[in-house]
Amino acid sequence: MARPKHKLTSAELKAKAPGKHSDGGGLWFHMRPDGGAQWFLRYTIFGRRHEMGLGSFPAVSLKEARAEAERWQAVVREGKDAIKERERQRRAAEQNLHVLNDIARDAFESRKADLKGDGKAGRWFSPLELHVLPKLGKMPVSQIEQRDIRDTLAPIWHTKADTARKAMNRLSICLRHAAALGLDVDLQATDKAKALLGKQRHKAQNIPALPWQDVPAFYQSLDGGSVTELALRLLILTAVRSYPLRFLHLDQIDGDTWTIPAEAMKGRVGATSDFRVPLSQEAQKVIAEAAPFARDGFLFPGVRKGVISDMTMGKFMERRGMLARPHGFRSSFRDWLAEATNAPHDVAETALCHVVGGSVERSYRRTDYLEQRRALMERWAKLATSNSNVVRLTAT
Known about the structure:
Distance between the termini: 100 Å
CATH architecture of the largest domain: Orthogonal Bundle
Number of helices: 17
CATH class of the largest domain: Mainly Alpha
CATH topology of the largest domain: hpI Integrase, Chain A
Structural class: alpha+beta
Order of helices and strands: EEEEHHHHHHHHHHHEEEHHHHHH
Strand content: 5-15%
């Protein structure tokens, strides 16, 4: 015979005497001597009786208590311990409450070793920090879906296409990181968001570069002797990227060769070794001129701390009324190699620190063409210091 249910009424609960009162179906009402009261579910599973708290009264009404009791009795009928199942669900819910802010920073920390300077320049994290976290940072990652991402990146999807692409890429990495932590996330959310956003209209533009024929005029105008001008001169003469040049340390230089540590390089996928840069006589002269400015061993220190910034060199050129930017001198150098020399392709690409050939080919090729590159760099320096077609560049 089934036990009667719904024995209690809402009106009589507050007047109940201290003790435990059954509502039927395993639901009990416990009135304490101090006037407080709570609900609990009594059930038996695996031969043992358990009492499971369902909340206090009157915060949990009789109707709500009955609904909860029925919910957990159904769990018991499935052969599960209701208390343990509720704890399991609570842990799962807490696990999925990790917000994107925390996941993003944890993902960044785990990738620092793979980033230049441990990511101190902020370029990896900034797309997230500027364009994603202000809107989605407080959301649990398990709740982020494609429409949230679409609405977040839509304002810059076409106007700042490259930044939006990087932000989308970083967010995808964060979702994969969350999944690796055991969180329930939609790993396809970023791909779905891209489908909603559509193809980007903005076309990537190359960094403006000075024609190689105009490099001598600009190089010879850098005669003020400032740290910025000396850095630009060496940047031109070596055709390296800005980062390794700005962080050039005196102990990296050995005579006429500058060895850039592998961790300071970019774009050399599959290469783990340091990169040697041949220094022309002019380059060695520039280093000697810059040496008195060195601080903590860094050849090009910043005004107050650290090293000179890439923006400092770019602003210097901007004040000269130039569209070209520091990184563009690599293009100037590469165009000169192609148009004014007979340098083999592999030598020219290696001079720019580009990885040449596949992994198998590289495993058999042991040379970095240092001496051939040294001859080219000497010719490049002579061009930069030549008096032919030199026009004095002045601020506009």
